[in-house]
């Protein structure tokens, strides 16, 4: 359910684009993101920082798209989000001396410090590459191709990356040793 909610604005953007074009789709994505924030707040009593960042970025870049009637701004939105996420991971590591992935997932995974660092760096590199790839598709192809890439290409690459991460992590996950029961008399 959480995954569907996270992709709710993207799916509605895609559908609205196919039905009514980029400007209607941009307005729909802005409204969907606002509704997503409202739902999350109502359900959980709080909203994760990344959702607030997403709302801010869609408001700024979507608003600029609608005000100027220039689709370039909305095409930059995924890149900005990717780079903000990757940048936050790097800022946490190099400036704040904290691994945000470890803070987020540390209660679910037991990994050596070096593996947490590799994981954080690989996600940062992935976000940087996805931002560049988004810009390449946005500038080298038509808007219809970019919208298709945004939904299918972006999600597909994310799934492949997560699978690759899972394979990498499977070799490093530390399992707890079972406690030995005293011998029975």
Q: How would you describe the overall organization of this protein?
A:
- The chain is globular and about 50 Å long.
- The protein has two domains: 1-69; 71-174, no CATH class.
- It is built from seven helices and no strands.
- The longest helix is centred in the last third of the chain and has 28 residues, at 113-140.
- By secondary structure, the chain is mainly α.
- Helix 1 (2-20) packs antiparallel against helix 2 (22-44) and helix 4 (72-94) runs antiparallel to helix 6.
- 79% of the residues lie in helices and 0% in strands.
- It has helices at 2-20, 22-44, 49-68, 72-94, 100-105, 113-140, 143-170.
- The model has no long low-confidence stretch (mean pLDDT 92).
Q: What is the strand content?
A: under 5%
Oligomeric state of this protein: single chain
Largest sheet: none
List the uncertain runs. none
Radius of gyration, Cα only, in angstroms?
A: 20 Å
Which overall shape is indicated by the principal axes computed on the Cα atoms?
A: globular
Structural class label: mainly alpha
The level of helicity is: over 70%
> How many separate helices?
7
How widely separated are the two ends? 50 Å
The tally of beta strands, per DSSP, is 0
> What would the average pLDDT be, to the nearest integer?
92
């Amino acid at each position: 359910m959480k995954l569907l909610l996270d992709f709710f604005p993207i799916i509605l953007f895609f559908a609205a684009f196919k039905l009514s074009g980029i400007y209607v789709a941009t307005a729909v994505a802005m409204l969907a993101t606002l509704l997503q924030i409202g739902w999350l707040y109502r359900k959980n009593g709080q909203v994760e920082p990344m959702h607030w960042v997403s709302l801010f970025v869609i408001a700024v870049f979507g608003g600029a798209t609608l005000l100027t009637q220039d689709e370039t701004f909305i095409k930059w939105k995924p890149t900005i989000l990717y780079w903000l996420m990757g940048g936050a991971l790097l800022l946490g590591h190099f400036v704040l001396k904290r691994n945000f992935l470890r803070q987020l997932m540390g209660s679910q995974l037991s990994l050596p410090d070096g593996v947490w660092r590799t994981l954080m760096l690989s996600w940062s590199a992935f976000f940087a590459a996805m931002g560049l790839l988004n810009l390449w598709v946005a500038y080298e192809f038509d808007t219809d191709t970019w919208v298709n890439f945004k939904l299918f290409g972006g999600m597909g690459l994310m799934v492949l990356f997560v699978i690759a991460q899972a394979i990498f992590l499977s070799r490093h996950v530390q399992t707890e040793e079972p406690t030995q029961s005293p011998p029975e008399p």
